[in-house]
Amino acid sequence: MQALRAFEAVARTGSLTKAAEGLHLTHGAISHQLKSLEQDLGVRLTERAGRGIRLTDEGARFAKRVRAALSEIAEAVREVTEQNNPRQFRVSVMPSFAARWLLPRIGRFLAAHRDIDLDVRATSLLVDFRRDDAEAAIRYGGGNYTGVMSEHLMDDVYFPVCSRKLAGGVPKRPSDLSRYLLLRSDSEVWQLWFRAAGLNWPEPTRGPIFNDDSHLMQAAIEGQGIALARSSLIGNDLVNGVLVRPFDIEVPSPWRYYLVYPPSLAQSPKLAVFRQWLRDEIERDAKAPHISASPRKRKRA
Q1: Which residues touch 3 (CB under 8 Å, ≥6 apart)?
Q2: If DSSP codes are grouped into helix, strand and coil, which group holds residue 180?
Q3: What pLDDT, on a 0 to 100 scale, did the predictor assign at position 297?
Q4: pLDDT at residue 75, rounded to an integer
Q5: Residue 275 dihedral angles phi and psi, to the nearest 5°
Q6: How many CB atoms lie within 10 A of CB 146?
Q7: Is 93 within 8 Å of 83 (Cβ atoms)?
Q8: Whose CA is closest to 229, among 161, 136, 287?
Q9: CATH class assigned to 85-155+255-287
Q10: Which fold has domain 157-252?
Q11: In angstroms, what CA-CA distances link 10 with 23, 41, 148, 237?
Q12: Given 1.20.1600.10, 2.30.110.10, 1.10.10.10, 3.50.50.60, which CATH number is that of 2-81?
């Protein structure tokens, strides 16, 4: 079974490295499992293609059948889990969203819905409902996800934040940022904000970069630099004063949050409860007082 999962991941990603990341295995382990499967079958399933890997004709036909079989197995696992633990509802979320948005609110869900055991799986890997046993996922992206149901939850905006203990003090003008260390992230692009602020600056190429926005925010809280924050992940840091907004200039994110789930679970009562709770929390945030910067430049891109 593990070899079949490894083969399906390689077939889907076209890369041993990406397949290894998706299955939390080493590159060598994926390669070994793939070779073992080919030896057992007596058929060449893959071949090198430049720096990547591609399927042979036999491999492509086999991958289609394996993918369907794994999808059936995943569905069977969900059914068995539902029968053995009808209270469980498993949702896959990004680590930053789990830490900065979901977990501070989850107590309200547990208090209101004691008949549901929410199982939160925080991972930066994209859940595949054909092979994973998650019932739903919250994704941050464009919303065009193949083979699943996708519902828009909320939008996002970007703006700089920093600590009051930042060396050099809180900047007063956008142009002052040239004197500060700008913290970078895989998810946020400074150049879009520069443009909104009237600065013809390129994207920063130096300084620390984070692949998780919760770590980015913590670095800013510790006064290590200025971060480009997302409204969805700022939490209570502005209200509590651990972070401040030097400017009211903000730009809309090109990505949105979506609730994603397999079509087979569209009528799930637990999904309906979780969906409504998410929308109630989002509406609650929209009604909360907005924390602005001190009145200097107020601009919405």
Answers
A1: 33, 34, 36, 37, 40
A2: coil
A3: 41
A4: 64
A5: -60, -45
A6: 5
A7: no
A8: 161
A9: alpha beta
A10: D-Maltodextrin-Binding Protein; domain 2 (3.40.190)
A11: 10, 17, 21, 42
A12: 1.10.10.10
CA distance 94 to 139: 7
Residue type, 131: R
Is the pLDDT at 79 greater than 90? The verdict is: no
As a residue count, the chain comes to 301
pLDDT at residue number 233: 94
> 3-state class of 158 per DSSP?
strand
pLDDT of residue 68: 75
Query: In which residue are the tokens 């520069």 written?
Result: 194
**Which residues partner with 141 through β-bridges?**
256
What are the sequence ranges of the domains in the chain? 2-81, 85-155+255-287, 157-252
Name residues whose C-beta falls within 8 Å of residue 18's C-beta, 6 or more positions apart in sequence: 9
Q: Quote the CA–CA distance of 2 and 12 in Å, as a whole number.
A: 15
User: Per residue in 202-224, pLDDT tens?
Assistant: 999 988 999 889 999 999 999 99
